[in-house]
Amino acid sequence: EKAGFDHFMLKEIYEQPKAYRDTMGSRIDATGKKVVLNEIGMTPEQIKAIRNVHIVACGTAYHAGLVGKSVIESLARIPVETDVASEYRYRSPIITPQTLVIVVSQSGETADTLAALREAKRNGARVLAITNVVGSSVAREADDVIVTWAGPEIAVASTKAYTSQLIAFYLFGLYLAQTLGTKDEAYIADVVSALQELPAKVEHILAQSETIKGVAEQVSTHNNLFFIGRGLDYHVVMEGSLKLKEISYIHSEAYAAGELKHGTLALIEEGIPVIALATQGDLFEKTVSNIKEVKARGAHVFGIHEEGEAELAKVVDQVFAIPATLPLLTPALSVVPLQLLSYYASLARGNDVDKPRNLAKSVTVE
Ligand code: F6R
């Protein structure tokens, strides 16, 4: 049932191109220029009445929600807050009938996420669920559901569910933009066409997994490391760091690259690995200057950049290129080398990759 792969996690990483295609599926119209979300019951009037969006989830799904915030704010210009479900309920969030609450859950059974959904409904908000399980508790109780068609995810560490959640956010963000008129048709058509190119680009990254394996083997000999990035890259490294901790048991921290000098830089010492994501063109120079700060303190930097960007190789120790895409879409590509990195680091350490210690696939207690 692992279809020739050694672990479910690796199989699921390799299933991502299919998961992207299936999640986009019939949600892109035949002309390939716009998004059709027949499953959304909200009328255009209801969509126009949305004043703010709350995205609520746990763990990896929360990290997808951080990207979701940027996607919705950039495409639809609606203010978005993203919260961890176990915090959301206890901070008296300001939920009104004009709030759209989006809950994100692979399993659809996470106790805190379900409780947040109920709290949102009690306060009169409309709830949209992004879930991988048709008929799950979250799917049944939400007003609208976007199913991620990633297929069953068996490995405890989430991979294809996360990236399918990103695809769901791109589709929903475009749908809002179409309805609200915040982006013109040509812009939307460009994003849709770039979305459709993602699966082949993921395949291109997967074909270079040996390079990542080499880096993972070096990383696996360390007990501490840092991930840095800015903007969307920061949200992706948060996911990369969680994945590495979860299955390799190596301590790592993800930092917004510009925050390092406000404390964390004190931890950088000779030889410490730093994984730097620098895919966002408008932030590139800023990230490079943060990379120089850690290099000057002896860090060994592994940089990930977009193809065609020659600069990074000059300042870091090793580089890995991902295919170029629109800045907003890079998370759907840049997370893939980080997934492979944690997989191979866990493998090098002889861990039980698919069933990490102390963790369960579905967390149904608060
Ligand atoms: C990490 C991981 C967890 C889940 C979290 C939420 O790899 O899998 O962080 O993302 O427990 O689970 P769902 O999405 O089922 O609500």
Automatic annotation (TrEMBL):
Its EC number is 2.6.1.16. The active site is at K361. It is found in: Cytoplasm. One of its GO terms (biological process) is protein N-linked glycosylation. GO terms for cellular component: cytosol. One of its GO terms (molecular function) is carbohydrate derivative binding. Coiled coil: none annotated. Its main location: cytoplasm. The keyword Cytoplasm applies. It catalyses: D-fructose 6-phosphate + L-glutamine = D-glucosamine 6-phosphate + L-glutamate. Residues 43-182, 215-356 form the SIS domain. Keywords: Aminotransferase, Cytoplasm, Glutamine amidotransferase, Repeat, Transferase. Catalyzes the first step in hexosamine metabolism, converting fructose-6P into glucosamine-6P using glutamine as a nitrogen source. Homodimer. This is Glutamine--fructose-6-phosphate aminotransferase [isomerizing]. It comes from Paenibacillus cremeus. The lineage of its organism: Bacteria, Bacillati, Bacillota, Bacilli, Bacillales.
